[in-house]
Design goal:
30% helix, alpha/beta, 5-stranded mixed sheet, 6 helices, 264 residues
């Protein structure tokens, strides 16, 4: 397979990033700006600044939506692992992608948002060592560990906890997709030939340390700032629960014993 095909999804991500207007840039005095045509594709909100002030972290609840499923996976080193190996010790943002996706509001959006989230986490002392990003490919035939390693180096900061996973076969992958309600259908031409692309619904999951799904982000709501707020909400929840447990421990044993009434 040619390098152009291998990096089709990567080109989509980088092209969108390059097309985004720089903050604070003005077209005043630039006559060519008046002749620009409207873009054919409406970019998802995750590519731009939020147009509203999000609720303060901790000012809302994120009820559990169920437990995150397990499954057999392969890491970038080609080592067989379990998905649950990457869940439980940190808050996790899990995204299902495939690297040659060219729908700018699909997998490239997910990778773009996770990269922005990575930058935010790296610059925030309160989030250090608290969060793991996981990009899980649903194209095991193409997205081998070698392909994912090549793909990841364009987005992952050195030493940042961003894991890229795949499976050894579609048979291994299918139960995981089913458990996460991740809809994926291969695209074929009129003669029944696989086109190399897939139709799918973008779903990104926020998972707490108890492996509970706390939010599922779709195209319209996937934004680094929103996810960052939700992560801080979970951390505040953890802090409150820890405080309550310590208070209970300190209180235990401090109650006065039963009053003994001498017999008459």
């Amino acid at each position: 397979m040619s390098g152009a095909v291998v990096h089709a999804g990567l080109v989509a991500v980088l092209a969108v990033a390059a097309a985004l207007p720089a903050r604070g840039w003005s077209t005043e005095g630039d006559q060519s700006a008046a002749h620009e045509h409207a873009r054919a594709v409406v970019l998802a909100p995750g590519y731009a600044d939020l147009e509203f002030e999000p609720p303060a972290a901790g000012g809302y609840a994120l009820p559990a939506l169920g437990y995150a499923a397990d499954g057999a996976v392969i890491d970038l080193a080609g080592v067989p692992r379990r998905l649950h190996d990457f869940l439980g010790d940190k808050i996790v943002v899990l995204s299902f992608i495939y690297t040659i996706c060219t729908d700018v509001n699909g997998c490239p959006l997910a990778t773009h948002v996770l990269r922005g989230l990575q930058d935010h986490i790296a610059a925030s002392h309160d989030l250090h060592d608290q969060v793991r990003l996981v990009s899980f490919s649903f194209d095991p035939t193409h997205d081998t560990p070698a392909v994912l390693r090549d793909y990841s180096r364009y987005f992952k900061q050195p030493d940042f906890d961003w894991q890229f996973l795949t499976c050894d076969s579609e048979q291994t992958l299918d139960p995981v997709l089913h458990d996460y309600d991740q809809w994926v259908i291969k695209d074929y031409d009129a003669e029944g030939n696989f086109l190399g692309t897939m139709s799918h619904v973008l779903r990104v999951y926020l998972i707490d340390r108890q492996r509970r799904i706390r939010n599922i982000y779709s195209v319209s709501f996937l934004h680094a700032d929103t996810i960052g707020n939700d992560i801080r909400t979970l951390l505040l929840e953890e802090s409150m629960e820890t405080g309550m447990e310590k208070s209970m421990e300190n209180t235990t044993g401090n109650f006065p014993g039963p009053t003994v009434v001498p017999g008459r």
